[in-house]
Amino acid sequence: MSQKKARVTLKQVAEHAGVSRATASLIVRNSPSISEPTREKVLASMEELGYVYDRVAANLRGQSSTTVGLIITDIANPFFNELLVGVHNRLEEDGYTVILGTTFDMENKQQKLISTMMEHRVGGIILCPVSDSSSINVEELQRWNLPIVTAVREIEGLACDYVGINYAEGAQMAVEHLINKGHQRIAFVGGNSESSAWQNRKKGYMLAHKKAEIEVDESLIVESSAERSGGVESIERVLEESDPPSAVFCFNDLVAFGVIEGLRRAGYQPGKDVAVVGFDNVEESATLSYPSLTTISSHAKVIGSKAADLLHQRINNNEVEQQRIILHPDLVIRESS
């Protein structure tokens, strides 16, 4: 007696045609977003493999999912740990399960995570975009009518819900604090200029100088990775200046920790010889940093909670008006300045 032939899956069709499962799924649903050559290639694979569209399974998949995706750039950054807590605490109230993905600030990894989460049929995604994100891969989500909320960084030209902090206001507060302490040469170090978060921090840095009528020395603005190692590298560069800065404003607290380390290596006493201000107010800035770090509180848990709340609203009604929530930062003064 012959065995029953196993049903050909859409994943097998996609692999045979050399496309993603998400693309194959769009084709069986007659999506107009797929090019005709790709459509013909996938249809040919379906015919060759004997694929039969499982309408019952498709209807089941169409039901609202209680799984949502959270995509962040760096799990090692305590800021994102706190944001995750805010997301998890809020969504747990409504019975959601959160799938976490990390891009390491690489757009190809971001695209792969988005595709994977779509293939696993999440009910929606909270995306903390990579520095140089384009709107292309996120627009794919919107074509699927999949709810999405961006957080922390905005993608220029993309119309979707967003939650973040007023980075320009926070940077201006930090630099004005240093100016009020008598500093005239203030470096701005760390981060990637392609990021909207960096651009807005620079805006605040420039505004504080303009308000105080202090000329900005562009050589004191140094980009680096937004990590401790980036802080070490960037402070080494600015200390090579013939007239080094007396204070440093850092892209985030991780960079600030690196700056403090780099200053010590160079024989400076952080907080006395050179003032240091960070951004984010992660827990370690008060408990583990020596000296304790003056910083800007960017309310990571609140951002996570509000992003989760927006996603929950959009999952339940994708026709609601888009929202842009901007939180106000706080200056937390400690020993480093």
UniProtKB/TrEMBL annotation:
Keyword Transcription regulation among UniProt keywords: yes
Species of origin: Halobacillus shinanisalinarum
Name of the protein described by the UniProt record: LacI family DNA-binding transcriptional regulator
Keyword Repressor on entry: yes
Keywords noted in UniProt: DNA-binding, Repressor, Transcription, Transcription regulation
Domain (HTH lacI-type): residue spans on this chain: 8-62
UniProt cross-references to PROSITE patterns, sorted A to Z: HTH_LACI_2
Matching SUPFAM superfamilies: lambda repressor-like DNA-binding domains, Periplasmic binding protein-like I
PANTHER family associated with the record: HTH-TYPE TRANSCRIPTIONAL REPRESSOR PURR-RELATED, LACI-RELATED TRANSCRIPTIONAL REPRESSOR
Pfam family, one: LacI
